[in-house]
Amino acid sequence: MLVLAVGLSVALLLILLMGVMVYYLWRRKGQRQYQELVSIVPSVPACTAPVILVSQGSWSRPDEIPFTLPPRFTPRNQGSVKNEEREEEEEEEEEEEEEEGVKVEVEGQRDILAHRGSLSVRSWYPVGTLLAGLYCVPTLNEVVAPPPGMATRLCFAVEYRHTREQLMVSLLRLGNLPPRFHGNVTLVELRLLPDDRRPRQAKARGTGPDPEFNDCFVFQVSGVCVSQSTLSVCVLSVEQDGKRHAVGRVLFPLEGELGQAGRVLWRDLETEEDTQCSELGDVQVSLNYSPSLQRLTVVALRARGLQLHTDAGVCVQVSLQIHTQVVKTKRSSVVKGEVEPYFNHRMTFKVRAQQLDEACVRLELQQPHAIRSEPPALLGVVVLGPFMYARGPQLQHWMDMVNTPQELVKQWHGLGRGT
Fold first, then answer.
1. CB 305, CB 281: distance < 8 Å
2. Around Cβ 345, how many Cβ atoms within 10 Å?
3. If you average pLDDT over residues 59-88, what whole number do you get?
4. Sign of dihedral through CA atoms 71, 74, 77, 79?
5. pLDDT digits over 303-314, tens only?
6. DSSP string, 195-217
7. C-alpha 101: how far from its chain's center?
8. Ramachandran category for residue 403: left, alpha or beta (phi over 0 → left; psi -120 to 50 → alpha)
9. Any bridge partners for residue 409, and if so which?
10. Tens digits of per-residue pLDDT, 10-32?
């Protein structure tokens, strides 16, 4: 038993000695691996950033690259910060009284730091900053000054990115806005016809005769369809009570206009008086569609500039057409003895929401013949509908009706010759 006890004691002692030896060897290895590097960084002022030297040779091993850790700043109370700021101010005053050579050296160091874009915060920790002189942008008035004239003009730019299939429209400003709209808020609605039903809106950042926008819009459209599209820009003036007034619109066909990307374009707004000047005359129509009732309402309001053949009067015939089939036809009463007749005749049609892209409305202004058996004389025709049937203002009127189901959309249209 005595021998066994002595053997166990000796074994435990040996195990303990071996553990101490392993721990000692492990500590020695760690010290050799993480030996602190001797700093070879040149002395720099206390208020400059840590300097990282880059080897000038073509290649150096990673363990030969010197580095320094950034200083650790401990939180200081407000009193110590104020004391240090006072000390720094005193040091700056003393430095101003030094010799001119020292000043030149300090200024040279500051120039180097300024070139690197460094700036000291609280005058004790340098961080990066922007050089404002590199980002001087001329004012918008100098770049896109409105051309002289009395017409209201829209300034914008168009660019198409083929790699991303994106049409970039930059809306810049309006020029020569009518005086009655100077105090109102100016809104602009943009659509890419014929498929874009949801308008993009922009609000002017000021009032007056030349409100500015500086907004950019992105339309996702393929390279095949972009040349067949038309950019529609509708300008609205909103009063304080929310009532809207149409200032005018610009229809900009993109075919052949994407060659010089990014150039600033000026286009005159087409007002109601400017656009409604047809050889055969004009007709004013109001459209409304109710999705809940599935009802299309067409109101023929009035006409002007008609080329009348007799004094028999004028009437309006409205036909609803789906594809190539005429579904229903309605006619207003005959208005006699007026050069500019007022109809104010409302006609409703049953149309499902899925049929709005397949249906159109055809309005014919007719003059009855003296003999009832003879067909009436056709004075002019206008077709309102989607891209399948209409273009320009007629297409825009239909799109406005679809996008504003709670409003009666009123507009003048020039009459064309029937086929």
1. yes
2. 17
3. 54
4. negative
5. 888 888 777 889
6. T--S-EEEE-SS-SSS-EEEEEE
7. 55
8. alpha
9. 287
10. 888 889 888 888 888 888 766 65
| Rounded CA Rg of the chain | 40
| DSSP result, 217-242 | EEEE--HHHHTT-EEEEEEEEE-TTS
Distance from C-alpha of 382 to C-alpha of 393, rounded to nearest angstrom:
11
Give the DSSP per-residue string, 70-119: PPPPPP--HHHHHHHHHHHHHHHHHHHTS-HHHHHHHHHHHHHHHHTTEE
pTM exceeding 0.85? no
Q: At what angle do helices 78-96 and 100-115 cross, to 10 degrees?
A: 120
How far is residue 66's CA from residue 39's CA, in Å, rounded to a whole number? 8
Contact 244, 209 (CB under 8 A): no
Give the phi and the psi of residue 18 in degrees, each rounded to 5. -65, -40
Residue 155 burial by Cβ neighbours in a 10 Å radius (0-12, 13-18, 19+): buried
Q: Which two tokens stand for residue 142?
A: 């100098």
Closest CA to 248 of 266, 269, 232, 233: 269
pLDDT for 187-200, tens place per residue? 998 888 777 767 78
- Compute the distance between CA of residue 269 and CA of residue 248 in angstroms, rounded to an integer: 5
Q: Which residue has the higher pLDDT, 353 or 124?
A: 353
**pLDDT category of residue 119 using cuts at 50, 70 and 90:** very low
DSSP H or E run through 2: helix 2-33
Sign of CA dihedral 322, 295, 251, 151: positive
Task: Quote the CA–CA distance of 181 and 210 in Å, as a whole number.
Answer: 11
Work out the end-to-end distance of the chain between its first and last CA atoms, rounded to an integer number of angstroms: 128
Angle, vertex CA 265, rays to CA 259 and CA 270, nearest 5? 120
